[in-house]
TrEMBL record:
Pfam families for the chain: HTH_6, SIS
Biological processes annotated in GO: carbohydrate derivative metabolic process
GO molecular function, one term: DNA-binding transcription factor activity
PROSITE patterns: HTH_RPIR, SIS
Location of the SIS domain: 151-293
Keyword annotations of the record: DNA-binding, Transcription, Transcription regulation
Domain HTH rpiR-type: 29-105
Protein name: Transcriptional regulator
Species annotation: Bradyrhizobium manausense
Length: 318
C-alpha cells in the first residue's frame, strides 16, 4: 500500500475509534433509552430480550439470568450478549443501570390503564377534570386563613414585590403573580433565572416582599434567592409544600401539596393549586386597600374600553 494511502487509512481509523456512537453516548445515563434506540439494530433474539426487559423493568432487575432468558424465550448466553450489545459490561451491570432508570418511578416506564383501547378517551376526560378539582380542593383545605391575611397585609404595604419560581408550573405561577398584582398598583416583577433571582433578592430590603414558589419546596435556586432576600430584611412568603425546606425558611408559608396522579401522559394538576392560592392572595390584598385597588382596576378597564374590541362585561384583560 502506498505511504499516502496508509496515512489516510490510519487517520480514518483513528477518527472512527475516537468518535463515540450515539448508543455509547447514552450508556452512562439512561439505559432504557439506549435499549429502545438500539433495538432495531439488534438480532431478532436480542430484540426479544429488549421487549421482555421493557415490558417489566422491575422484574428484570430482580430476576436471575435463567428467568430473564425464559421470559424472553432465548438462551442465557443471548441475555449476556444483549447486555454487551447495549453497552453494559455484563448482565449485572445491566441490572444496576436498570435500577438507576427505575428511580424516575413506574409511571414513566409503564403505560397507564386503557391506553390504546376504546376506554382511553372517556377515562382520560374524566381523569383530567377530576385531578383539577382535586388540586383546587387540596389548596382550599391546606391553607390557613390567618396566614393568607398576614401575607396579603404585608404585600399591600410593600415597596416592591418579586415572585420567584423555576421549572414548569412554578415558573408560570411566578408570572401569574406579576399578572395579578400589577393591577393593584404594586411594583411587582417575576424571575425564573437563577442568577437574576439572586440579583433581585440582593436589592430587596425591609419594606419589600418576595413570593417564593415551589411545588416540592426543594428548588435550590428559589431557596437560595429567598434566603438572600430574607438576609437583607425582606419578608418571604412561600407557596410550597408544608414542612419543606422552602417552607422552613419562609416568614409566612402558604402550604399546599397535591400528590401527582400515576399517569405521566397527563399534565400535572398541581399548577391549578398554585393559581388558586395566588388568586386568593391577590383578592385578599385588594381587600386590604379596596378603594385604591378599585381605582386602579377602573383605570385599566377604561383604557381597554377605548379599544375597538372593548367589552364592559368581559374580563379585565383577555
Amino acid at each position: 500500500m502506498p505511504r499516502a494511502k496508509r496515512i489516510q487509512t490510519a487517520k480514518t481509523a483513528g477518527t472512527a475509534a475516537s468518535t463515540p456512537s450515539r448508543r455509547d453516548a447514552f450508556v452512562a445515563g439512561d439505559i432504557v433509552s439506549v435499549i429502545r434506540q438500539s433495538a432495531p439494530d439488534l438480532s431478532p433474539s436480542e430484540q426479544r430480550v429488549a421487549m421482555a426487559l421493557l415490558a417489566d423493568v422491575e422484574f428484570a432487575i430482580h430476576a436471575s439470568n435463567a428467568e430473564l432468558a425464559r421470559s424472553a424465550g432465548v438462551s442465557e448466553p443471548t441475555v449476556t450478549r444483549f447486555s454487551r450489545s447495549v453497552g453494559c459490561r455484563g448482565v449485572r451491570d445491566l441490572k444496576v443501570r436498570l435500577a438507576q432508570a427505575m428511580a424516575v418511578g413506574r409511571i414513566y416506564l409503564e403505560l397507564p390503564p386503557h391506553v390504546g383501547t376504546d376506554l382511553a378517551r372517556p377515562a382520560l376526560w374524566r381523569s383530567v377534570f377530576q385531578e383539577i378539582r382535586r388540586a383546587i380542593a387540596a389548596a382550599e383545605e391546606g391553607l390557613q386563613r390567618e396566614d393568607v391575611e398576614r401575607a396579603a397585609e404585608a404585600i399591600s404595604r410593600c415597596s416592591k414585590l418579586a415572585a420567584f419560581g423555576v421549572g414548569g408550573g412554578s415558573t408560570l405561577a411566578a408570572m401569574e403573580v406579576q399578572n395579578r398584582f400589577f393591577r393593584l398598583g404594586i411594583a411587582v416583577s417575576h424571575s425564573s433565572d437563577p442568577r437574576l433571582m439572586r440579583m433581585i433578592a440582593a436589592t430587596f430590603g425591609r419594606d419589600d416582599v418576595v413570593v417564593a414558589i415551589s411545588t416540592t419546596g426543594m428548588a435550590k435556586e428559589v431557596i437560595e434567592a429567598a434566603g438572600i432576600a430574607k438576609q437583607y430584611g425582606a419578608l418571604v412568603v412561600a407557596i410550597t409544600k408544608p414542612h419543606s425546606r422552602l417552607a422552613s425558611i419562609a416568614d409566612i408559608a402558604l402550604g399546599v401539596h397535591v400528590p401527582e396522579a400515576p399517569d405521566a401522559l397527563k399534565p400535572t394538576a398541581s399548577r391549578y393549586a398554585l393559581l388558586a392560592v395566588i388568586d386568593l392572595l391577590a383578592a385578599s390584598t385588594a381587600y386590604c386597600k379596596p378603594l385604591e385597588a378599585q381605582t386602579r382596576m377602573r383605570r385599566i378597564k377604561y383604557e381597554l374600553l377605548k379599544g375597538a374590541d372593548g367589552n364592559s362585561n368581559g374580563p379585565l384583560g383577555d
